[in-house]
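Let us begin with a simple case.
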Amino acid sequence: MKARIRILPQTFVVAALLAGAACDKNPEPATVSPEPPPPTDAPPAAEPPPPAEPAEDPAVAEAKRKEAENKQAADAQIAQGKDLFAQHCASCHGENGEGKGKHPPVVGEKALLLDAPKGAKKRKGQQFQTAADVLTFVQKHMPLKKPGSLKPEEYVAILAFDLTANGVSLVEPLSAPGAANIQLGRQPPPSTEPAADASKGDKAEGKGKKKKEDKAEGADKPAEDKK
């Protein structure tokens, strides 16, 4: 004989209430925490390194090195010439080569002119076409009290200083043969003195002529007229 299970009505009511409550309840959505902002004091991103420069041509690098050596040697020669000028030349030609008294300037627009200045005795008739002409002259006549007393390289150094002071750029040490390649031929600056008034000269000439005529006329008069 089969057993019968008796389900009470109250059991159905409780089950129904529990099922309804489960369906009506909305679960809260899951919250996601935002990512924290990056720190403001963080170092900037490193920049990529610049591209590597191509290797320099060995011939070009050697030429640059030689050029720098020549310029350095020229500067040393000019400095030596400046010291020698102060020792042997400044007493006559001025501390800066501006000239002194009857001694001509060796620096400035009136220095190293093509033709010798008026009144020059030692340089009379000698032109300075090139720096070699100047070198030949100073080796023979300077210093004034002891001409020819310096060493050849000392004369060249003084000339290197003098040329540089007059605007000649030396990219390598000056030499006696190289001086012949430096053209000078400098002309004197234009005169600033006013031109003589030709009319005044004509008037003066007229007055002088009249005086001579008066004297001649007086000499021709007889002695009686002169009384």
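The second case is a distinct protein. As before, the sequence precedes its structure tokens.
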Amino acid sequence: MSQASDILIWQSFGRSARRSECHLRNSSASLSSRSIDPRQEDIGAVKPDQRFVGQSKEFWAHVRTISQEVGYVVKARTSNKSTRQPREPAPVKVPSIQEVTDALGLLNLNSDHVVNAHTKQLTSFGDALLAYFGYRAEVLNTSVASHLMTVSDARQTFLEHYQLLSPECYIPMNRQRGDKKTPQFFTGIINMLVEANAAELPVDYNPGALTTVTRDNVPVRTLSRRVDGAFTSTVNPIAIWEVKEYYYTTTFGSRVADGVYETLLDGMELEELRTIRQIDVQHLLMVDDHFTWWICGRSYLCRIIDMLHMGYIDEVLFGSEVLQRLPTIVNEWVARVRANPALVRSKPRTVEQARSQTKTRAEVNRWVETALQHPEQVADESEVRETPEDDGTDGDSNVDIVGELNRGDE
């Protein structure tokens, strides 16, 4: 990308890092292991830690069972229910050896394979388990927390890139009304970055069909769900991606939780394709909104990190991480196509799709013009948050925000 684009990347990242600096100092203080400073480390996407790649299904069964029993975040020691004033969200939890054995014992499960009953020392399996809990907490409490953007951050970053890149790609509008109706900022940023680095190769920014993989022009697998983007096509793609942006929610509702499980389904289908047919399709997940994911949904961030290491996602990009990492990823796709032009596939848009995208582009252009000329008419973040549609009460999906912050346990 150009020098001007690089400047935008660092400006946008700087806003996110400064916003989270105070919280990072507090949340990382309880970690005994080395902390990650996002201003000093590479700010690329979260990739699997090779120590935990290839672990058995039994290992991940332990991770889920123990996490469920001991909790995903540190419990608050005191309550603030009298004032109902929210405090800083508690950090992601690293369970102690005693908590792990107690959790298994409460479920009438054996723990001798985790902690030696005679020496009281961790077994090799237990050592790997505790190391993973430590890694998961560290990466979420430090690197991930600092990259998730607020809607204000995302709006500013979107406008900067829209002015710089003059995109031709599809950028969807959200489904809100009135002042709340805006472009989907995070999706728009992603699509603009992909377009700017795709070397004019085909990209499906709005797949209207299921992803299909073929051999000898015969379908061998078709995924159950439509994804949010595909390079170069939904037929035999090099890569597919899913975007989870929830800037206007007040609870971590079932719609948000279901999005995590949808990604899990896609990942399991792609794992089966890779294992049985030796066909590899890169699977990216990109999520954003500091409020929804960090304030309300830290337990689901833990689940995302778990899925990453279980092999169901190749990379996860959190918020402003897309600014630096996504161009590199797209350049890798382009290099693969140049090495093998037969990989290029494209599907012509229908007349209906073309009309719809033309209408949407006009809406985006009008919104951008208004936002630049009359910024006071753009709704403030505090004015636009609302409960997501189909908000459910299943399990820990629906969280009362102030109560959750005071309880500190998801």
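Residues 199 and 334 are 7 Å apart (CA to CA). The chain has 13 helices and seven strands.
Keep these points in mind for the review questions at the end of the chapter.
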